[in-house]
UniProtKB/TrEMBL annotation:
Residues 191-230 form the EGF-like domain. One of its GO terms (cellular component) is plasma membrane. Residues 293-566 form the Protein kinase domain. GO terms for molecular function: ATP binding; calcium ion binding; protein serine/threonine kinase activity. This is Uncharacterized protein. The chain crosses the membrane at residues 247-268.
Length: 611
């Protein structure tokens, strides 16, 4: 391949490409500064018969189309070379298994687009292949560099800044200085930032590359010294005291880690001891709670982390502890222990004791086997559905327990988190109130002012949200939501449109439109119960859900009205031959006498459990 004169073949933008087995390819040209001096540059490929057969089978002669010398090779163009022609030399011993080879000059950027083909079968591919090349400009017909600079005070000289002028045949050309790049005919050549490409960092680690105008230098970091004389090929070696420095740092870090571990373990033990003391002092700060202290040895150690454990004597109990080691949760648990220790009612979960030997206090209470009312209402079992009579009984049990808290305990107690998931069902499916973590002891005729709203979304008293004053009527409102759950089988927050998400609003709208039967739980409707009972309980729930707390009934009145409906499903006590049921008798006897709200005397309203 020969090239015409008059064009400068770019030495920076082009490359030589050779393809084939055991082939040498090369550039032949003359030095543009000395037309008589010949310049050569080239490369060679290598492959044996086995590799050639492999290339023939797979249809390519290099992996990933990269020329590494195996079947193909590349060579750069010498700077200042006027390219005349390309030569290809084939070694004779490869002719029998790979007779063809090819070489061509091509723009370096276009090389990845060439698709390797096996030459002996695809010669036409290379014959038709058209490849781009890059030529440098030359200024023809204006003399050499000196003439161009001097003519008319250099007005005709077009080489811009950071470039040099090179004399060529019949003129001159412009070329950016080493370390600069750009088009010297249009604008000043700009600096090449050799340090910007970290993938091809010119400095050897650990030397740091510093870019300079037109060049760069390599500097050794602190603790190293340069043992080379070339700023671009810096060799960094640790200083004489570097090894001792590293040893001292290593020993310091090791000893520091050991001391830090010992100190941390000591602080951990100290904090744990103080937490135990704090648990005891916080618990005893209440008015002498009547509790049993349980030693950690009494609990099944293999059951740590579970909510149900077994005491040493074989009794199944429930063990409650905070989920997180946060003061608020610990305080809620201690508050629950203090509240439960002063309560003795058969429809309230009984506290058996507490353990203060752990990092956080543990509450040990009786185990209630049949789960929560929430689960039985919203995930009913076909084998054992909750009937209307059972729902009335659970509502009566819960209302009676809440009335006991408000009226018959030594100090009135507001539960503050009444909801169906806090009503547990025992082995007889009787209701028991639980979870007194947010409950509060208050004086008679007092309200409880809070800085933040406590409770569960869907059960909030709207008056409490506005005033932050929690009263016994706030518990009544939450209990009204539970009554609506028992009637409709719907959750307090319904997973439907935003307009009907609130169970309370949805229920009240149906009551106003006299469409109660449209929303009664289908499971209950199947029992063919007296529809008047539904209306009675629904009307009671509507009164509980009044936005004005003063218009709501007391929990004592609520309990009496539920008991009146429940009595319709119970055998008459005075009926001849009818066996009495102690549970039902207890409920009815509990409300004999006064129908007033809670009084100052607990004797007028006694719901303590009986043996």
């Amino acid at each position: 391949m020969k090239f015409s004169d008059g064009f400068k073949f770019s030495s920076t933008k082009n490359s030589l490409f050779g393809y084939g087995c055991d082939t040498s390819v090369g550039f032949v040209g003359n030095d543009e500064m000395n037309a008589t001096a010949k310049l050569r540059s080239g490369c060679a490929t290598m492959c044996d018969r086995r590799q050639a057969m492999y290339f023939r089978r797979v249809g390519k002669q290099s992996k990933n189309n990269r020329c590494s010398g195996l079947g193909c090779c590349t060579a750069s163009v010498p700077d200042g070379m006027n390219l005349n022609y390309i030569v290809v030399e084939k070694h004779t011993y490869a002719l029998d298994f790979n007779p063809c080879s090819v070489a061509f000059a091509v723009a370096t950027d276009a090389m990845p687009t060439i698709k390797p083909q096996f030459l002996s079968e695809n010669v036409d591919y290379f014959k038709k292949l058209q490849l781009p090349m890059v030529y440098d400009w030359s200024i023809i017909g204006v003399g050499d560099c000196e003439t161009a600079r001097s003519s008319k005070a250099g007005k005709d000289f077009i080489c811009k800044g950071n470039s040099e002028c090179l004399n060529v045949t019949r003129g001159y050309r412009c070329q950016c200085n080493p370390g600069f790049e750009g088009n010297p005919y249009l604008h000043d050549c700009h600096d090449i930032d050799e340090c910007s490409n970290q993938l091809y960092n010119p400095c050897k680690h650990p030397a740091e590359c510093i870019n300079t105008n037109g060049s760069y230098v390599c500097l050794c970091p602190k603790g190293y010294s340069d043992i080379s004389a070339d700023a671009k090929n810096t060799l960094c070696s640790p200083s004489t005291n570097q090894s001792q420095y590293k040893l001292a740092v290593g020993l310091s870090v090791t000893l520091g880690s050991i001391l830090l571990f010992i100190l941390g373990y000591w602080i951990y033990k100290l904090i744990k001891r103080r937490q135990k003391e704090q648990n005891s002092s916080l618990l005893l700060s209440y008015k002498k709670p009547l509790i049993t202290l349980v030693r950690i040895e009494s609990l099944d150690k293999e059951a740590v982390g579970r909510s149900i454990r077994e005491l040493a004597e074989g009794k199944i109990v429930a063990v409650k502890k905070p989920k997180k080691l946060e003061e608020s949760e610990i305080m809620e648990l201690i508050n629950e222990i203090a509240i439960l220790s002063q309560i003795n009612h058969r429809n309230i979960v009984k506290l058996l004791g507490c353990c203060l030997e752990t990092e956080v206090p543990l509450l040990v209470s009786e185990f209630i086997p049949n789960g929560t009312l929430f689960h039985h209402i919203h995930y009913p079992s076909e084998e054992f559905p909750i009937t209307w009579k059972m729902r009335l009984q659970i509502a009566s049990d819960s209302a009676g327990a809440l009335a006991y808290l408000h009226c018959s305990s030594s100090i009135p107690i507001f539960h503050r988190d009444i909801k169906s998931s806090n009503i547990l069902l025992d082995e007889k499916y009787r209701g028991k109130l639980s979870d007194f973590g947010t409950s509060r002891l208050v004086g008679t005729d007092q309200t409880h002012v809070t800085t933040r709203v406590m409770g569960t979304r869907g059960y909030f008293d709207p008056e409490y949200i506005q005033t932050h004053q929690f009263t016994e009527k706030s518990d009544v409102y939450s209990f009204g939501v539970v009554l609506v759950e028992l009637l409709t089988g719907q959750k307090a927050i319904r997973a439907i449109s935003e307009q009907d998400r609130s169970l309370t609003a949805w229920f009240l709208s149906h009551m106003e439109n006299s469409r109660l039967l449209d929303i009664i739980d289908s499971q209950v409707l199947k029992e063919n119960c007296n529809k008047e009972e539904f209306h009675t309980i629904a009307t009671l729930a509507k009164r509980c859900l009044s936005s004005d707390g003063k218009r709501r009934p007391s929990i004592k009145e609520v309990s009496l009205e539920i008991e009146a409906v429940l009595s319709l499903h119970l055998p008459q006590i005075n009926e001849p031959g009818t066996p009495t049921e102690p549970d039902e008798v207890f409920v009815t006897e509990a409300f004999k006498g006064s129908f007033n709200d809670c009084g100052s005397s607990s004797s007028t309203f006694n719901l303590e459990s009986k043996p």
